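Nitrous oxidase accessory protein NosD, Kibdelosporangium banguiense. C-alpha cells?
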Amino acid sequence: MLRVPPLALVVLLTCAGLAGCGVPEGAGPSTLRVPQNYAAISGAAEAAEPGDLILVSPGRYTETVRLRTAGVTLRGTDRNAVVIDGEIRRANGVVVSAPGVSVENLTVQANTLNGVLVTGMSDGGDGLAKGSNEYTRLDPEKFPPLQGFRVSYVTAANNGLYGIYAFDAQHGVIERSYASGSADSGIYVGQCRPCDIAVRDNIAERNAVGYEATNASGDLYVLRNRFSGNRVGLTSNSDYQEALVPQSGATVVGNLLSGNAEPESPAQAEGGFGIGIGIAGGTDDLVARNRVEGNPAAGIVLGSAIDLPPLRNRLIGNVLAGNGIDVAFAASARAPRDGNCLQDNILATLVPNGLIQVCPVPAGAQPSAPLPRMNPPRGVPFPAVAAPPPQPGMPGAEHAPPSSAAGLPGPVDVAAIGVPGTNLLAVR
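C-alpha cells:
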C-alpha cells in the first residue's frame, strides 16, 4: 500500500521499476518496496525517511542491512520466505542504530556474529557493541542508549554469536520471535538501566543459551517465553567486563524452561549445561510462576559472579519437576548470598537441604552448597544446527501501516500471568 498524494504518485509511475526511484522529499511516510523499487534492502534503507516502511518481497538477500534513520519500519511480506543471509561471511544481518526502528516478519540467518543487533553503541557502521566488530567497554556518555525499538515476528537462525541482540538500548520489545542455532544466546539483552524492555512470547531452542541478560536492570520483563531444548535455558548475570554492574530488578514470569541439555546445539555454555534458570550475582530479581522441568543439572540456580553475591532475589510460585536439583543456592564463600527467598514453589529437591519457603527470610547468613557438575556433550558447529521449522507470520504484513516503536513496551500486567502449561507455544 503506497500512501502518497496524487502528484507524488505521478512521479512514481513515471519512473516505475527503476532502482532508487522513490517519493519526492517532504511527501510524507512512504512505502519503499524491495526489489520492485530497490534491488537491495540496503538501498531502500539508505533512501528511507523517518516513518517510512521498507517492505520486502520474498527472496534471499545477501547483505548487511544498516538502519540508521529514526522511525523506519523494515518488514518482510512473508516471514519464512524473506531471508537475509549472511552466508557465514558477514558479521551481522540487520544493525539498528537509530531510535524508534521496527524489524518485523523476516528471517535473518548464517551471520558470523549477530542476526539482529540493536544498539546505541554505534559508529554509524556495524556498531561497536560486544559481538559486533570488536569488544569496547560501554561509555554511557559517549554512547547514550538507543531509545525505542521493536523486533517482532523475526526468525534468527544459525548465527555465530547472538540471534537477536539488544545492547545499550532502552524502551523496546522483542516479541513473537524465534531463535535457534546461536553459538552464544538466542536472545540477549545487555547493559541497560533502566531497560524498560519486554521480551515476550518468544521461542529459543537449540542455542547454547536460550536467553541471556548481562547488567540489564530495571523494568526488564521476560514473559511467556519458551526456552526449551538449549544447553542452558535462561541466565541473568552481573559482569565486571561490561558497564552498569550489578544486574538488578529483572522480572521473569510465566516462562517454560524445559529439557535444557540439548546435545545438537553449539558447544558453549559448558559450565551451566543442563540448567533451566541461572542467576549469577543478580539483585532484587523476581522469578515467579515459571514451569521449570526436565533440566538434568538443576531447575533454578542462584550463584555469585566473582565477588558479586546474589541478593534479595525472590523465587515465588514456580512449578519444578524432573530436574537434577529443583532449586540450588550455590553462592561462593567470597560472595555469600543474603536475603534471597522461596515462597509457594512446587518442588521436590533443594540444595542445601533444610531451606525453608518463606519471604522475607530471617536475618542472618544463608548457607549455600556447590552444584554438581555435568559432563556436557561435545555439541555441533552453529552452521550445522538443524534449520528451524516454518514460523507463523505477522497478520496483514503486506498492507499494515508502519509500526511505531514509541512508547514501548507499554503497560505490563505481570499479575495476570500464571504458570504456563508444558505446551506453551508448542504450536510454533
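The two ends are 29 Å apart (CA to CA).
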